[in-house]
Amino acid sequence: MKSSVSARLNADLLDEKYEQWCDDPRSVEENWSAFFEGFELGSAQVKQKGGAANSASSTTGATNASEQDLAFRGKCVSLVYNYRTLGHTQAQINPLLDEAPRNPRLELSQFGLSDGDLEREASTPFFRGGKKMKLKEMVSGLEECYSSKIGFEFMHIHNTEVRHWIRTRIENRFTESQAQNFDAEKTLKWILESELFESFLGKKFLGEKRFSLEGGEGLMVLLNAVLENCPSSNVKEIELGMAHRGRLNVLRNFLQKSLTTILYEFTPDYVPAIVAGDGDVKYHLGYEKVRQLADGEVRLSLAANPSHLEAVNAVTEGKARARQRIIGDDGVQTDRKQVLPILIHGDAAFAGQGSVAEVLNLSQLPGYRTGGTIHFIVNNQIGFTTMPADARSSAYATDVAKMIEAPILHVNGEDPQELVWAALFALEFRQKFGRDIVIDMYCYRRQGHNETDQAAFTAPHIYGKIAKRKTLGQSYKSNLVENGTLTQAEADAIQNSIWDKLEEGYQTMRELEKEGDRSQFSGSTAEPQPPYSHAAVNTGLKLETLKHIGQTLTSVPEGFTLHPTLAKRFVPRRADALNSGEGIDWAFAESLAWGGLLLEGHPVRLSGQDCRRGTFSQRHAVFYDNKTRDRYFPLQNLSEDQAKFCVYNSFLSEFAVLGFDYGYSLGCPNMLAMWEAQFGDFSNGAQVIIDQFISSAESKWQTPSSLVMLLPHGYEGMGPEHSSARLERFLQLCAEDNMQVGNFTTPAQYFHALRRQKKRNFRKPLILMTPKSLLSRAEAVSKIDDFVDGTCFQEILPDDKVFSTPEKVDRIVFCTGKVYYDLVQHRESIGDESTAILRVEQLYPYHEEMVKALSSQFPNAAKFVWCQEEPKNMGAWSFINPLLADTFDARIRYAGRKEASSPATGSKAMHKKEQKALLEEAFSI
Questions:
Q1: Which of UniProt's keywords are assigned here (predicted)?
Q2: Which fold does the domain 184-520 belong to in CATH?
């Protein structure tokens, strides 16, 4: 039976599905199961009518007719399935092609059908609810749904509910009123606003770079269609991220930034209103605006962005999650529906940048999900001068989005009505399922990469076609006049009104410029910071508060079974330190700092790879029941009105996760936001975020952040890969008090530095070289007296040794981090009484006055040494040498490893030899 049915159905897919169904009816989708049940029932009825197996009637024409009908229905089902799967491959999505090439796999002959079957009734329960139709009507309907101006990719989605919802919306869209939710006049206005804005800038500022949206004006249709439907969809805010292509257009026509300000930014005499920092080019700037709509208001925020493509994606997602927390959009009832992230991509960048895949992978992770992102791809079909054939190995630029089973809509960018439908579909999908969705808008770039670039050098044929092509605005305007939607006078009035407003804005700008009144050029969303201050900040806590936090950290609920190691060693060690007031280690100090901030109303967030336990099993911010794996977060149980504590193990990414946490720090400034690298050198993978955002954002965009980066660093003889957090790279980026870089030696210093992040009137990123071996080193502990009220962080720490005759000290060794303990140990072993060791805990901003003050107690010191574990061309030497030399007006001597291309040796024996040599050198030069 099985083989005969498969032969009659004559379709590979049906063969496969029927085999599956015969083996296990539950293994196939519901619609397939229903079909095969009906098929079996029909076959059984045919046999019953035919009588006994050996009767002549079993081979009558009626029986054969029924079997042929069933086979025909099977072929029709296969046809429908294949259109749903492959219809997009022949959709009319490319405006530069007069006709899309047909896919031979969708020819009737591929399904055992022919033109002679077109008049046969082909209704099936699998297309438009079983509506009766002929095969030719079915083919026409499938073409209309799946091979018109939108190509749909959704059959890769495993979730049956999601897939069926999408299919129903697609197949019913042409049976609904197409005029619903579509206003042709308003859509024309959106297009003309975009088109005329670019044309106006091109005329007034000839040759100026603006990275225009010309050829991709449909983006404004997508954005505005989403925006107008936000209030009815319960969306209160949009967090927007995009690169420079079309950014000025989005700033003006979507966020409604002041036209006079945008025009002024093109003038030769433009000076940013905010004089602090260096500023940035106009098409990198961010902006915020509350848009008043007919049925509500929506807050819009466009993240500032460097030219590094796709780098802003993770930052935008982090900002969105922070806003969701702030407005209470992270609860069960709202479930992240009220803040919508929208990311705008270029086709070449979406396919080429690895950060895209990393950010997509964030979408459903507990610590990073934002309720789904709408991705708009402005598919110019070229990347600078590179054509798609040279830019990607996939059929579409969007194929990477299939990794998270996002539905993908390929849309013709010159069909405004389809653009509106796609935008509303995307918004509805996102709000219903909380998942990402991609709209790939096929368009073109009318200009070159910028307005001074000649695109015809490398694409003469394509740009010859583009030059002859009417603009979208003029083409759509003509269509509306021709079909009677607008009269010629009405259409011209819309266009003239837009142009007049542009001219009016330009004249206003020129008048203000002549008068010297720059106060009217508003539009900056910068947050200027007070000057950096070395002033001490009281970051200690009351003793009873410290003990309350400590007791909470060393308690678990009744019946909760701790792992034996934690129960016998970890928790008792903390309890003993708390009771004795001595021996508080690094991780305990960290948790005490967090606890204090939580009780004071500051939320705390830590994310990174395996950071809940800690790379070195030092933290245990989460306890797991050893029998059930139930989780218990001690720091979530300090008091009923405490702030929220979150700690998340991230996926194996640095770029996306650091960018996300940086964005979170921007959106939620009251929170202590922290990112931890599993090992310090892992931050290499996030260098773009460090360079483009963390170190320079305040100077470029006046966007302050207090993000903390924890980078395990230290030379323990474990090889080159995980020894160095590349301290030198961070120090090279330091200028204009842009961030703080430290390498601490005591847990108390770490405690105070974390709390200091939330106790000053300015915000700066904090980059910490955190220890590895010091986490458990017996000497690297602090007393509870170092944490109490009245104590604070110290940028430079004095020598702990008591010198009976400080006048005998003739050498001061400066160092930072772990090597301090090795220096102290070596000094004791050789009985040295003439060398003092000062610790530069905060390398930047450098506190020169404190260095002088602590050095002054050794009036006869004439030799100054910098000692480090890192090779001479790495670590802090190149940075600190000129600073110390200026402080003492003296030569600073170097004790450390020689220059090297690799951070450390792979031989433990060689490491020990080098370490011994640099310690000896520190006390002998």
A1: Oxidoreductase, Thiamine pyrophosphate
A2: Rossmann fold (3.40.50)
